[in-house]
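Input record, target 12 of the design panel.
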């Protein structure tokens, strides 16, 4: 095996993974659909607000980009990092992965073993079925999703707490573990398990965090009604080592591209095996009720609608440019509907573009 790794899908996540691996000595080949985008990357002219990406791309020496999927097979290790959008019934749309794998099948049986590592979020049991299909062509499927956040992807990838490895066999698990041991600057726990166990673990982790956020906001809302300081209470709750202070803050509810859909996907997965995931449902419901409380509380304390309301940002969190499922955006829109004059202080081009497309 050479020191080459192919990354199929070099959007926000895949590009960061490639740049981090390149800095640790790997030769990276990135594959994507858009010729224009690929040219920007190869010419090192790509612009983004994601920290470190422009700097790392400019200084890179061993990363190339192409639209030719067949070239990716020049390497024996391939990561797939493409979008798997939510479906209407809260599963994941795997069609982007399926298209790539069907194209690989059209190239015939591979002479050397190809480890195909799925980095995208997939629904439990998908990867197991995919492996059964692909192994006939000498493609071995593993599942390796990451726990990262927009706005800190580079940092999160190399400083992760744990690495989730759904391995098709010991050889694949050892391979993925060695890659992360080389890339990470932290000393993450390597959680190795079956493909389906890893798929369930990925959404289970995110659903625990959504539950923690909704719980914190519920306690915070109660505290305010009792004229208590919510932060004092939540800091005390989080000081218990069994609980911890992370994600235990009173503020806006959860949103973004991962938490809401993973929470609902877990509920869907549970129902398929005869389990009523009441905690996931309650978490989603509490997230919405907390927003209602925030709006009600604001209107109560700010009855004069002639005063302009300045809103710092409407993205799902402060250091992001994503408005998907943003509680902050819903808050701003609702106040405008109620007759308040809204002034958005966030003038980032990417945010404004998304808002214009939405409106």
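The sequence produced for target 12 reads:
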């Amino acid at each position: 095996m050479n020191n080459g790794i192919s990354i199929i899908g070099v959007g926000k996540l895949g590009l960061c993974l490639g740049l981090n691996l390149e800095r640790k000595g790997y030769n990276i080949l990135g594959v994507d659909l858009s010729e224009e985008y690929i040219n920007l990357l190869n010419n090192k002219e790509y612009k983004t607000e994601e920290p470190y990406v422009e700097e790392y791309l400019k200084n890179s020496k061993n990363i190339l980009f192409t639209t030719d999927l067949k070239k990716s097979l020049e390497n024996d290790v391939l990561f797939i990092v493409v979008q798997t959008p939510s479906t209407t019934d809260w599963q994941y749309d795997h069609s982007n992965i399926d298209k790539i794998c069907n194209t690989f099948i059209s190239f015939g049986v591979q002479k050397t073993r190809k480890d195909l590592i799925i980095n995208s979020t997939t629904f439990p049991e998908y990867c197991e079925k995919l492996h059964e299909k692909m192994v006939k062509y000498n493609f071995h499927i593993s599942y390796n999703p990451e726990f990262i956040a927009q706005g800190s992807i580079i940092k999160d990838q190399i400083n992760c707490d744990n690495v989730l490895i759904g391995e098709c066999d010991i050889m694949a698990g050892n391979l993925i573990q060695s890659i992360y041991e080389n890339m990470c600057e932290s000393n993450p726990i390597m959680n190795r398990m079956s493909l389906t166990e890893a798929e369930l673990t990925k959404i289970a982790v995110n659903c625990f965090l959504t539950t923690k956020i909704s719980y914190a906001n519920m306690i915070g809302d109660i505290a305010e009604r009792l004229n208590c300081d919510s932060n004092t209470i939540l800091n005390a709750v989080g000081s218990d080592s069994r609980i911890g202070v992370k994600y235990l803050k009173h503020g806006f509810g959860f949103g973004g591209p991962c938490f809401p859909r993973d929470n609902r996907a877990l509920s869907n997965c549970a129902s398929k095996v005869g389990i009523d995931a009441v905690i996931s449902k309650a978490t989603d419901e509490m997230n919405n009720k907390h927003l209602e409380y925030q709006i009600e509380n604001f209107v109560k304390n700010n009855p004069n609608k002639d005063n302009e309301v300045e809103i710092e940002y409407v993205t799902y969190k402060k250091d992001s440019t994503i408005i998907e499922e943003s509680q902050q955006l819903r808050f701003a829109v609702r106040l405008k509907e109620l007759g308040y004059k809204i002034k958005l202080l966030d003038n980032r081009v990417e945010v404004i573009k998304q808002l214009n497309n939405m409106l």
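The CA atoms of residues 129 and 185 lie 34 Å apart.
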